Queue: 4 jobs
Job 1
Amino acid sequence: MKKRRRTNFNRKFKNRTIGIFLISLIMLFVFAARMIYLYNSIYKTKAAEQRTRILKIPAKRGQILDSSGNVLAKNVKVNCLYYFPQDLKEDSRNKIINGFSTILDMSGEEIDKVLASKKTVRVKENLTSKQVKEIRDLGENSLSLTVENRRYYPEGTSLSYVLGFTNSDGEGLYGVENFYDNFLKGKYGLNIFAGSRNGSLISFEDNREVKSHEGKNITLNIEQSISGIIGNILRDAQEKYSPKSISVIVTNPMTNKVIAMENSPRFDSNNPRKGRTEEEQKELDGLKDKEKLNKLYDIWRNRCISDIYEPGSVYKLITAAVGLEEGVFTERDTYECKGYYNITKGVTIKCYRWYDPHGIQTMEEALANSCNPSFAQMAEQIGYAKMHQYLKAFGFGDLTGIDLIGEQKGLIPSSASSMNIAQLVTMSYGHGIAATPIQVITACNALINGGYLITPTIANKIDGKELHPKEELVKRQVISQKTSERMKALMVNNVENGGANAVKSPYYSVGGKSGTTIKLENGVYTSEKTVASFYSAFPMEKPEFSVLVVVDEPKGMNSGNAVAGDIAKRVNDEIAKLKNINKGSSTESELTDIDVPNFVGETLRNAVNIANSKGIKIEIINTSDSDGIIIKGQSVDAGAKINKNKVISLIADDSGEAAVKIPELVGKYKNEALSILKDTNLKITHTGDSEKSRIIKTNPPVNDFIRQGDTLELIYEPIKKKKDEKKKENTEDNSQEQEDVENEESKKQEEENINDSEE
């Protein structure tokens, strides 16, 4: 019985032991399987991630082409060097420092910045084949070389404000590169670097690549040939006028497609962080990081769409169109210019020819003469509601919708009811509102294309597919076809017979309008600082090109006609030559029939008299009300020959410091001379018989220059004496003469005696 119990106990113990063992064995298998599973999944993945380096490969970016298929932006293969800080071994640090210094010519500061980073760093790009070999020879696992696409702009500075540029990651910044980035960039790929179990890279070649998908090509409305021409013209104009900036836009006025858009000075899209001039580069080098970035933003700003200015007299075209469209006046209605126009107590509108008023003139003549008082009267006829309604209808105060980033709306009165009489009349000639150049040329194009306000466009096609059907771009018809035709005729008259004749050509018909805006500085208007602008279009039978030139603060000559008109003329002529637009038959002799006098040093009064006597048209931009101010410069050199309709711009110095040219006074009596000199601020002295005699000479002489406030001596014939005094003087003179003769003979005799004794 006892034995049986023991046997049962042993059997149970044995069974339990086997059970426990089997359970333990199963658990061991489960645990092992779980470990194998985990190793082959999560931990294996994490370990692989720790040994893998992944770099994004920018896709081959789409090309940017001009309207003729010329490449404006393309891709080039470049060698890039990356640094992986987590793989740097301490004993390799000095080796890398020496390598960076000798192979890459990096400064100690640049090297320290790279090695201090805790993230992957793109050290250098555009490495030469020699540099690539020397980097490979270092054999450092913390360094990796890749071949990537980089953006290249064959034209350099040309069209930089239209194209923009990309950053080191291939992302579009500014211009077309930014606006159409989603189309251009494509889909990036991956460069996967495999590594060993200890986390270091095995080799430069041991990597895998997930291919990228290239972006789409963009074709622009831009004509590179015209942009190149404008670039050369702007370089010369920058040197000639030394302005703060120049902006030029060329469009097809019928479609408002942008054919060219340039600013000066220009940055280089291949090196956008470099200053545009040596002075600007020195300035950048001296700035801290934040200040430097703000300066770069200013350099990259496209002034054609981002800068606002008062359009000045170019806006008179809009005022004229509104009045004609509404039937308020016709081209034959007359207005009187007295030099000034008082609109309300304390508010007076001044004509630029206040010293020689236009008098009675038609609306057509007032536009050609660019007469502010006449346009103030027109604005009063049009009224607040219509002026503000058309201001908005022509697109002012709103975005044009151009396909570029950074466009500004400009500034206009919020409503008709918010305007006062001064705002109403000054608006008529482009003051009191601010617009961008792209707004101005878009509005002016509507005047000559049948009255249609059209969205301006830079891009035309994406991979050959049209982007903008014309019907989608037309916003509205602002004026009728009939009014548009009348405006074309008025613009031609401005050039043929008015103050916009700087662009006149014997070879093609051209119309336009100049504008000169005197800038407000520290609450004071100064004629020394202006914005000179000019809108022109040609050939006017069927306009194909419109050109807007805006020059900010030109030095010396600073009127719209003289400065912006000069630039516009060169642009127009070069385009006409390129496009073989030559419909005229005038000869050179028809253009040269008046010799230009020298106005420099004359008072304003004298300059006007000289110009009137020769039948020459002049314009003077100044803020003075004195006709005694002195002319210090002229837009056409003295002695040149001009057409009788050409307007010469004169620079008047109202500071009182300009030198006065001594006028022709010989042969004139005292009162005549003083009348001529009364505005010169000179001190006058008289020598000789100033009461009865004529002037025989001056000191300094005629045509010399003398500073205002200095003394001018007028020399007359000697005073005539009475007969008996004259007779007495003659007798005394004869006695003295006889005495002198006797003394001379006596002296001669003494000399002969001395000579005889010596012999």
Job 2
Amino acid sequence: MSTIPKKRTSFQFGAFMVDPNSDQISFAGQTNKVEPKVMAVLLYLIDNRCRVVSVEEILSAVWSGVVVTPQTAQRCISVLRKLFSQADDGRDYIKTYVKKGYQIGVAPDLEQEKIAARSRSTAYWILPLLLVIVLLTVFWNKKQTSYEQVIFPHESQVATYALHPNKAIVAYIKRDPFSTNGAIWLGDTNNPREIAKIGHILPTAQIDWSPDGQSLLVMVNKKITIFKLNDRLDTIVDKSIVLSEADYRYRQADYLDENHALITRLPRSHGVYDLYKLNLQTKQLSRVLADSGVSAFALNKQLIAYVHRNGEIWHVKVFDLTLHKEIANQVFKQVIRDIEWLSDDMGLIAHVAQNELYIIPLAGKPQRIANYPEAYVEEIELGQRQQLYYLKKSSIKKLYLGQANVCCSSVLPTENIAQYHAVWDPLGKSFAYVTTTQGTSQVWLYSGGIHRQLTQFTQQQKLANLNWSSDGHWLLFKVNDDIYAYSLLLSTGNTLLSDVYFSKPLGFNKNKEFFYYLDTNGYQDRVWKVSLADTSKQKVLTLADDTQVVSSNGNIFYLGKGKNQLYMFDGQTNHLLDSEFPDDATLHSANAQAVFYFLNRPGSMKNIWQWDLTTREQKIVVPRLSYSGDVLSISPQQKVVYGQDIETKRKLYKRQLAPLLAPFNR
């Protein structure tokens, strides 16, 4: 739980100026002095603005050690609401969630506070810092092109962006963190400015420059609009809607030339996007490719590179518009999120899965060049001198602990902010989870109210797929592309299998003689068992592509896509558990008592069901209204760990591509 916020300098809060040091809130030249506790309540809500804060939490934080009633906090909220009502600007400064609590509804501008704090802090260090800067300038100038650089340091809600044809100006759509509204901003790396508001922008938005750099094509939901700018690119002089269809949805829209755009479009009646050419004058549409299922594309003169999904296989194809034929096709088992042409026209760079970058030559084998373990990379573009631009989405997650079918959950008292991948041990007495602190990811253990760090990795790693042994003495998990085991008794760990791409560990067998892992390379999925004595391995299951697999206590449960037969493999034999399992089920997890799943149907997506291994009964065990965020793990006692984003940032970065390509070019 957060502590009472410290006093700070004045800051803007909507139409109001808040001065915490003097307990004053000003509006339109009039200053109102409030009680210190009223100010403390406001500051506490602002410091926790990314979530709903309960009355009990406010009382505990602001009136710690003092017995007061809930009405005390409610009175402070009432005082604040009365003050904020002076603005009459239609904004809900403090939102109420019935039986849950309160949340700030207007984004505070805390930049002046941060600048002041930095100024005070750096005043004592300025002379040594200047000396260090002088000494390191030459070294930094040589090295800086190898590292990523944030484009707009104070902007953390970039929804989408586009580079101007001169590569010196960025247009981007900025999302309001407290609503679904957005605005178009323009700028270089120093001075972005708002040029237009565009209202509701969820769930999708795209922006692109015209080839002459005088217009912006903006796609928002079911509407595509052209914004014409003046010569100085600082004012919109004309706006025209070129496409608005309620029965269709769009994913990507880019200029082909001054008079045409390419868009991916689907009717609401089916879920496959097709690529179309849109005449911006006549507004007529014509199909470009025979392939259906185009999820992304990139233009290079008369070449269209596009991502075509066929089931769970992704193809990166290149189509020549002049020759009207396909000239390249690369196959991936992982999701291809975005692609961009390289400047030499000989290949593409692709954003693969959630956080990896690949080089895809027109002929030859694709090769991974970078990964971002704790961030989600989006929308790649190539600037001047091989500068790679990309959006990076990062989330700070917090773990919550609760009981199934009971509202509500309590936050775990820990300073380790970013927490992921929680898994209960077989007895339900503790759970392991991943946390990222001080630049590295580590596995931690929560037991009896105490958090204990287990691993001691010295470099940033991608940790995932935690599995317990049936006796609770070992953890098996993925470290980057390796399978790793950690002994809680010996407090040490080691790599069991290296360079196991496109796979995930499934745990040990019950006697810890073997461990299992799922291999998703190729067109079939396979489960292998690997001897702990000599690392020899044997294939024990061959499954259809995209089979759902979960494991617990040495047992492997699997369900084919679109099938209604649930199986269990105990290390020796396959057992058919249910021949009438819901065919729209998605397996979630398993423990010693049950298999958990949810149903892909309206109104049921967040209900977690259980299939009892003893009684074979099916029932909802975690109702959707009993939690927020994501259910991560359920113990045998039906204690539940939830993961919830408490802060999400989407920032625009760039980095020099040449160092990433160096190993590829050798």
Job 3
Amino acid sequence: MPKSPVYFSLVLHFHQPVGNFDHVFANAYDLAYKPLLDHLWDYPDIRVGLHFSGCLLDWLLEHRPAVHEQVGRLVKRGQVEILAGGYYEPVLPMLRPEDAQGQVRMHIRAMEDLWSVTPTGLWLTERVWEPHLPSWLAPLGLRYSLVDDNHLHRAGVRCLVGTWLTEDCGHPLRLLVNLKPLRRLIPWQPLDAVWTMLGDLAELGRNQGIAPLACLGDDAERFGLWPRTHEHCWEQGYMRRFFDGLLERRDWIKTVTPAEYMERHADQGRVYLPTASYLEMMDWAMPTQEAATLGTYRRACETQDISRFLSGGFWRNFLVKYPEVNWLQKRGLDLSRALDGLAAERGEDAAVESGRKRVWASQCNCAYWHGVFGGVYLTHLRQANASNLLAAQEESGLWPSPHWSVRDVDVDGREEVHARFGPWQLFLSPANGAAAKELDYLPKRLNLATAFARHPEPYHQALREAAEKGEVITPDHPQWKEFFHIHSAEVRAKEPGLERLLDYDRFDHMPFADYLLPDETSLDDLTHGRFQPLASSWQTAMTWEIQGLKEGMEAAFTGRMAFTENSFDKPVGDPSRGLDVEKSFRLFTDRVEVDYRITACGGDVRNAIWATELALGLTSRCTGRSHGNGGGEEEKDLEQSWSFVALADVTFACPYSQGRFLVEVSPEATLRHVPLWAVTKSESGFERTPQGSAFYFCRPLRLTSGGEERFRLTLRFVE
């Protein structure tokens, strides 16, 4: 008796993020993309869907132009369906509807220009779904999108082998279900397991009286770029055996493009999906402790039917988990609205259009989330998005100077002071002691304030436990070169001893955050985030005043920094005691001067250190100069913690801008440096990733009541 048929739709997603290194693009093409496209040409009867992000296509068309003809030939012979998406691969629900629709329109037009096709399907970035999306997509002519089986589970649906219909405000959208079990099998497990699963789905379809669809939509990188997959898929012949096996079973496995299936078969009915993504993403979006707790319950009942109801969190909570991400996203929204204002004044001219594309490029999703993938911890991706925001301001004309305003940019209920003069731009937080949420230098399109705090992640516990048992697999281990997949239980680390770098920060790293520290605070305390401030910017609300200067602009802040410990013989919260802090930012064309005046009020301040943090996201090395050694220079390694006594000035090399950033200190101070190493997990295993550096300009504070201390930091770029 012949087997019942099952339809199999393979949808391959090709993407590399804005700001990624050229060698990563090249490796992805050489190891995965080209072999895949060549392989498809050799198998004309295997029908697939392809999606290319615009940021990847921009690189490919410049550096590997053969892709244009290569994909065009596949499209022309009817083997391939092209899917649309947001051009710069954004998570659509994190955007304004105008930007989401604009990005998708841009992508559709590019597909029409390149391959003369108008896509009707949407590749949904990271499968992040929110219920209003059908209304956004309806004007674009899109008829369907891919969601995950997790979405259907959350809606209470058990039959996942066909398509479903949803709508928003009367705008319909068909949904293909991306099956997690297939993603776990291909290309990791023996092909017999794949045929067994497809056979089970075929039987399910026969019993349900429907035409079953098995859809696998995932990253093309899994077929060659991920560790050991190039050898496995191409040199050892997995993909050849896979496609040969599909053809051998063509009597009951029918490969189709998504559009072909929907033209021939009706949907299973109506469904309304809650906010969702794939299951792992929903776990990653949760607070770390909650994610760990959920993981415990999930492992306890993973073989039980109830496990499908353990659905995890909500993608937007990455904006809570990582405040630095929220700032970047809200800055993009703010600029997008400002561009609307420009367009209303002068029309959608070339400058406004250029600014919009730059804002859209800043919305590339990879730097906005983290799990095993995601690039929150990749400094070059964060900096690329930040740089595109500055380019948007410059190219559109949104850099008038001098300029200042006060508004709640990041929507946290507290306003920021936005000051701009010449090449400099600052966003200062009066609620946090006038620490800087952003510090920009336009000629380099450089945001210096992209250091990232060290956050606890759920997978850190697995590293600790494996290290305690001596079970961490490192490059010198015999198992290191064996084939494995990212869902494997084994713990791999690119170097030994990473568990010793599991340090976390209590405070965000922002330029000009100030701390009053006990005298005994050591460099080691700062390095490991263990210091306990007596007072800090984080509890200091300041009033502010802005005025023009003859050749610059001044933003002056005043506030009382209250003590937060039982120190100096007074209890916590005594309002009569503290430090009155006056903090002035003067912006000139060639420099920024930051002046401090600190006055003890209500009593003496003894045995304390004043530390002003300058957190920088972009440094490769630095050179300090001390008056104490005759003005001689000393180069420092930014991969280590160190102190520099009697510092007069320090110069940082900025690799992404090819410039040098100079900080002058008056009077001299002790500079303490802390490298911000995060321990992250990628498809290759655990690794250390640099998040920038925290530089603390420290000076002993010994003040009688009414006594004061003054000092200055001067910032400038030098060629």
Job 4
Amino acid sequence: MIRIQASRFVILSLASAFVSNGAFAQRGEIESQTYEIVKEKSIEFAPANRVFDKVQPIKGESGKTKVNYEIIDPKINISAPKLTPAVGASTDEKKNEEKDVLNNYIKLGGGNYGRFLGEAFVGGRPAEDLAFTAQLKHLSAANGPVDNKNSANAATNIKLGGKYIRSTYKVDANLEYDRKNYYFYGYQPQPEGVIVDRDTIRQTVNQFGVNLGFENTDASVLVDYSVKTSLNSLRDRYSGSELDWGTKLNASIPITEEFYALLEADAFLSQRVDQFTYHRNLFRVKPTFKYVTEGFTVSAGLNVVNETDSELNINKTKAFPVLNVDVTPVSGLHIYGGWNGDIVRNTLRSMLSENQWLGPNVLIVNSEKTSEISGGVKGEISGGFNYEGKVAYTSYRNFYNFNNSLADTSRFSIIYDTGKTKVLTISAQVGYNYNDAFKTSLKANFFDYAVANVEEAWHRPDLTINWFNALSISKKLFVTADFYMLRGLKAKNFQSGVVTKLPVIADLNFKIDYLLTKNFSAFVSLNNVFGKQYQRYQYYPQQGLNFIGGLSFSF
């Protein structure tokens, strides 16, 4: 069933050290995403026969509400190179029958470090097949962990979105503007009486994006397809800019009831301007065939990628195998494995989303995942338990990491391993849900790096642990807690030659929500309860124990 969340009333959330209720989190620290228990209205349409990712699902116990919640890993697979761990919001698939749902909300809050939070959300459905949303978020901190205002930060985000769904097709579009203002406060301690000019360490990043998608939802049409295109622009305070246009096509054709031909095609055209002007393009065609039965799924094909870069004189085409197998020996159990490769597209936008402390004129090069072999097992058992274990062995060229630059240790450079980098990843996850009154999910990841032409995988962890818990004490009182741990971070000061093992990062956060009335709720967040000014990136200590509290009005 295709469903659109037209509006929502948030009654449970958890914020990170710089975030409350889904507001912006400063990059370069452990980031706790928003957890939400959502009351929602939905637009329902006739089901479509989607086969892009058709696979036999794990079958839970009948008659019970199925709750999925996912931990998003610190991505070592650099196709999504975010290193800071984050936990996604739990989602409840049960249809909400409540008719009197409060759709829109306004939130105001404040806390130590001179924080201010303001957020507003408005959603509507002017017609049965049309829905829209508008959201504004602002979070700022007047002071930070180093030299007060010299480590302040502010972020503003505006989102406008709409969906139009007919019985045979779906159109969705959205606009987004994001502005981040912060300071490079990772400078060396200054002599007494020396004042750092804030204007020389200030950074402002403005991003604007527009997305448009069209998808066939008519099950009677033989060819199933979707097309999505997006245009994104980025500009910073140091005359750096990037314009990026990407279009993606997914299509499938059933040959028999069990056999499908699938096609994925991508085209990305981008221009980056700083000291030089780079025209960087990437084109991908990925035809595959998929065979699906009750207890067995296999897909095989070829991934062909062409990349060009005018300034770096790159124009090459690579082909990689695609093979995935999924076996269900018994209901509720999946055993899977795969072999694949790709050109991982890196952009200034993706790099800044991972490490905002980058200096100007950093080198941006795509990374080649020459081969990845993986296997694992996942499933559900009675009593509300779910689990997954996975092992992956991946080879890269131009595997990247971040380290303080030689010219200015308060700014970061991107270091690429031009040889073959081998990464072993072992992960395990277990979750438990008790009648939606208590949810917990624990995941651990172990990474081993074998680099070729660089000293170390700077600032990449060798062990991460994420533990999320949500407890409904009553119909009005909700408590969430999350714990993150990162170990094995190494950094080097290229000016002095000193290599530093950064201390283990342990971050514990609590959030309490209380429904005062039908329209009002109050929240209090306690972040970084251990009070450690840990460094996710060298010379950038994070805020210690901090809090934010406020009220939410829904209407």
